Amino acid sequence: MSGRVRIGGVGPLHPPGRTGRNGAGSNWGRGRTAGDEEPATVATMSAATDSETIDLVMIGGGNMGAALLGGMVNSGKFSPEQLAVVELREERRTELAVLLPGITVTESIPPCRSAVLAVKPQGVAGAAAAAVAAGATRLLSIAAGVGIATIEAAVGPNVAVVRCMPNTPALVGMGTSAIAGGSAAHDDDLVWAESILGAVGIVDRLPESQLDVFTGVAGSGPAYVFLVAESLIEAAIAEGFDHDIAERIVTQLLLGASTLLAQQGDPATLRKNVTSPNGTTAAGVAALEERGLRSIFASAVTAATERSRELG
Known about the structure:
11 helices
C-alpha cells in the first residue's frame, strides 16, 4: 500500500524501520504518549509513498500499550512483524525496542489496516483521524470518557470504531475490559477487539451507555482495592507491625482472598464462611458496617461514573 501521511507539519517523514527512531507515516502530535500524551493537533497532510502496510498499529507506547502488544504476541494470535507502536519520545522508543522485539517502533503512523488508540482523551480524535488517513479501517479506543460519536465524527463513515475501557491489572495479564461497537462495527470487529484485549484478561460486551458505569466499577476499581490495602497496612502498623511485614501480609491476604473468590464465586457466602458468630471477624465486619462501608463504595462508584460521563 502506498500513501503515508504527515500531519500537522511536525517534522520530516522518516524511512520505515523495525526499531529505535525509524518510522514512517502520520505524526499525530507532539508530547508524550500512552498515559502521558498531549493532545494531537491535525493540520496539514501530505502524502508519501512506498512503505509496508502493518496489520495493527498501537498509537501510544506507554505501559498499557506495551502490555497489550506483549500479550498479543504471547497469545500466538499476532505476529510481531505485523505490529507497530507509535511513540513520540525518543527514550521511550529505545525502551520499547528492547521490550517488544520484532515489533516496529516508530515516531509516526505507518500505513496500516487497524489501530489501537492508547492516548489521552484529548488526543483521541487527532490520533483516530491520522490512523484512518494512514489506511486504518478499524479502530479500538482505550481512552476513558471519549464516546464513539466523537471518534466517528473525526474519521467519517465506513470506519469500524470500538470503544473499550480496560483496567490496570491488564499490565500483569489479569485485566477486565468492556467493549461497545459503533455504527459501522460488526460482530467480526468486536471479535477482533476481543482478541486484542483477551490477551491480557477478560472482556465483556456492553451497551456504550454502560461503559461509564464499568469505568466507575472496574476501571477505577483497582484504586479502591489499593486504598483498602493502604488502610489495612496502616492499621497493622498502628497495632505494632513493621511496615514490611504489614505490607507482605496484606498483599498475600488480598491475593488469597481474590483467588478464592475467582475459584468459588459468591462473595457473600465466602464472607459468612469466615465470620463465626461473636468471633473476631464478626467484630471487625460489624465495625465496617456501622461506619457505612457499603455506602462509601457506592458513593465512589457513583462519583467515578459521573466523572466519566462528564469527560465524554
